Amino acid sequence: MDRPAIIRGISRLIFDGVEEVSRIVEGMHANIAAPSLPFGEGTEGRMRGGTGLVYASIRFVNAAARAVLDCTLDVLAARPKATVTDARWDAAVSVTNGVLGDHLVASNNPLAIRMCLRRNGQVLDIDRELATTVGSHAQRVVVLAHGLCRNDRQWTRRGHDHGAELSRELEYFPLYLLYNTGRHVSENGRELATLLERLVERWPTEVQELAIVAHSMGGLVARSACHYGAESNWRRKLRKLVFLGTPHHGAPLERLGNWLQTAAGMSPYSAPLCRLGMIRSAGVTDLRYGNLLDEDWMHNSRFASTGDTRRPIPLPDGVGCYAIAGTTGKREGDLGDFLFGDGLVPIRSALGRHQAADRTLTFPESHQWIGYGIDHLDLLNRPEVFSTLRNWLT
Q: Are 364 and 341 in contact (CB under 8 A)?
């Protein structure tokens, strides 16, 4: 990413933040000045007279500064560009996309990540560079899909990379998916299905076997892609799908966040703070129950407390599906073992278990594995996790 684009992206986030904070403060000011009852409806959140003019002036100056900076950056954009490829910068952008990714897309912010397949930290040009990069002997392909707020480079943790080891030991050709984790899972799933179809069509030789290894949210995106690409050529070549700590039935932290936001809205004095809760991305709110499809979110406000209204989607037919769950407990039955799981995803959610039979994912017992003393990120590098993964893919 070139420096003018970076400056433009960061500055737009700052300007957006100033605007949002001014509206939150004005809303609280209006409700306090009313005054309002402790519970119930507040004011419309706008101040009148001179005080209202102050808030309007803040937003006017903010918008003017944004316009001036954008014009300056348009001039700089015509000059030679220095590209930033630092791994720490990539990590920061990935976190920003995870938290605000849908806003970045809606506001045309250059920090928004575009979905692509990468190898060795570089974008793989499927249309022009595939034959040169791949060669004519790679017939087994594994695609690795990262989780929320992460990127393709972060499959390497403490010197270990599942993809590189699968290439060395099982002769898979590894490709790493990069995507904006703040978008809806269903949007990413549909785009991934299209991307994999292009990949298989343009592969230099016939793909004999396709496998997907997915960490955390990546597993939801992969399942969504299997649904939207059910009749595709790549889907017929998909042999194995391995989930590492995927929240098939959601994550408690997002449900807690939704509850806190609802509680804040009960009083006019704290209601303006609900706007802070609404900055969290569509991808994050999809993790409340594990949404996979457009219809899981498009008929209700994603911030409303509507309960689990998902359409049940089974595991894809004809594919060997496997699930690995981590737990910070040292042994079976430890306190909090099945409640907190790996610190982010409970064991039951990671293994697809649900009290409703139609929502339960039917992983065979031999296709399930629980790692003790393993947190959510340990799933990326622990030897026993890779050993299980290798055995399943052999």
A: no
d(CA 298, CA 55) in angstroms, rounded, equals 33
CA distance 356 to 354: 5
Each residue's pLDDT tens digit, 378-387: 999 999 999 9
Per-residue pLDDT band for 40 (boundaries 50, 70, 90) equals very low
The single-letter DSSP state of residue 156 is -
Q: Which residues contact 253 (CB under 8 A, 6 or more apart)?
A: 344
Q: Which pLDDT belongs to residue 82?
A: 47
- Residue 195: partners with Cβ closer than 8 Å, 6 or more residues away: 115, 116, 117, 126
pLDDT of residue 324: 98
283, HSE (Cβ side, Cα atoms, 13 Å): 31
Residue 42's Cβ-side half-sphere holds a number of Cα atoms within 13 Å equal to 26
The tokens for 132 are 């040169």
Q: Is the pTM for the entire model greater than 0.85?
A: no
Closest CA to 167 of 192, 194, 135, 189: 135
Q: 81 versus 331: which is more confidently predicted?
A: 331
Cis amide prior to 35 (ω within 30 degrees): yes
